[in-house]
Design a protein that fits this description.
GO molecular function, one term: protein dimerization activity
Order of helices and strands: HHHEEEHEHHHHHHHHHHHHHHHHHHH
Helix content: 55-70%
Strand order of the largest sheet: 3-2-1-4
InterPro entries: HATC_C_dom, RNaseH-like_sf
Protein name: Ribonuclease H-like domain-containing protein
Distance between the termini: 70 Å
Largest sheet: 4 strands, mixed
Number of helices: 23
Pfam families: Dimer_Tnp_hAT
Number of strands: 4
Radius of gyration: 28 Å
Structural class: mainly alpha
Amino acid sequence: TFRRNDMPFGADEKAAFQKQALRAVVSSGAPLKLFEDPEVKILLGMLRTTAPGVIPTAKVVGGRLLDAEAEEVEEKIKKSINGLCANVDFKVCYCGVKYNDLMMMLQAYLLELINVTAENKDGPSQCDHFAEMIDRVEFKYGCFVIYFTTDADGGSKKGRTILGKKRPWLILPSCWAHQFQLILGDYFKVNDAAAIIAEDATGLIAWINNHSKVRVIFNEAQRTIQVSNGIVKIIILAYLVANITRWTTHYVAFVRLFLLREALEFAVLQNRSAIIAAQVGAATSTEAVRLKEDAERFCGLIRDQTFWEGLETVLGDLEPICLGTNINQKDSTRLDQVLLTIAGIYLRFAEHPEKEVRVSMLKRLEKRWKDCDQSVFLLALILNPFEKLSCFGPNANLNQIKCRNMLLMVYRRVRSRPDNEDTPAQRDVKEKAVSKAFMQYLAGTGDFADLNDWEEMSVCFGNTDPIQVWEALVDSAHLAELSKFAVEILSIVANQAGCERTFSRTKIEQSDRRNRLGLAKIDKRLRAEHARQGLVKSREGRKNHKSTTALLSVPRYRDLLEDQDDEDETERGRALVSSAEGWTL
């Protein structure tokens, strides 16, 4: 007879306990030797006296248990991936992307971590590595790679260009999350006044944050204003710092600064001498002179109405760019959504009051659009049943015949894979079926006559997922080929968000205190974590941007913001901009 706390563990209980111990280690990011800690053993022993006898050691957690869990996840991935791969960050890993029939959404799967530290980064070498990755994925998972994404730096871009010539059936987009960050850089390059204001704002934020006595005075000004306004629950807002690798934080930091304008001006008006004294402190001689000059300069900046007016203008320009960045760093942003964000940014700057900024930004946007595989992006928008040709104006010079020709060109290209076993006659039959179905789709006739009813129903239920529409039509024999092709095009994700988050998680796992943790073991831990999370993260939508702006005049463009995930807390980067000199993009 045993007391409840003294019950021994059976074999099944022991296995379940150890498996959960592994999950606890992975979930918490704790070291593998967590359960070897004496205090942890005592804690578990208080719950059940026989627990210390079944607690796994670091060797067991990082060995047998982790291997078994990784194997289990690997089998799940093999069963899940059905051919829609792959989104690649060559520096880190590659992820397969699969359309989940049950959840009706795209999911990113970690397939492999690759150490490329010693590899050449020139175009031909990159191309060879890309080809090896693709071959390995297709062989291992029994799927076929449809698209391949990297950033647009010299080696990666050249490598993709060479790969496209060798394997023309691949869709090879650049990462558009990176592209919108580069557009932010373009803005400051063509607008010298905005760059100066950004430097001043960054310097002001850094000055307040770096001098605690000064910050106390400004915080007290916030408190005084809230009390005078009858606010009972006093909340002192912090001065946010931009992070050059978290791409929307520049905008967020400047918005917060602008929000605190009243408190800053009030503090300088009432306590200018106290602010300067707090800055100088006990310093003497030249150091005291320097500190006083700094305080005088920033107090003067706070009282400068021109600075605040300029900051408000800069915020108006930054908002659509950061909105585009936020939309395009989601794991499931489609190509039609990318195209709408580009159009939104273009329309915003086409109305910019400053001619030099307007002309320069439009020129740079056109250059980035020129580098795209334009037909694929346009086709994605046309194949969206909720858009079709509605977003195109008369100057687009598009008609149904041109759209059909564009569709057939891309279709033939994607279906030109050497492992396509269709005979020429079979390909001809499929092309004719695709062409006929597409013309009916554009005209809204035949099987597409009731598409408007579907649209109304989807809007009513808050769901305008175009892939869901095409999935519903895939069982119709004469629409199957077009439906499958549309799903492939609409499932392409032109960003590296999943890879970047994996990179961040890798850096956390392989920290200075855990620098002997090998890449293979990190790979397994990340896989186990993905399994624990169900391979997706549920997060609340962002509220960073106003709903009314010229950018959102593109049809249904405002809906994209509502579906955005918050920035992942594990996202790469701790490179905080703490001084004006650190303002680099």
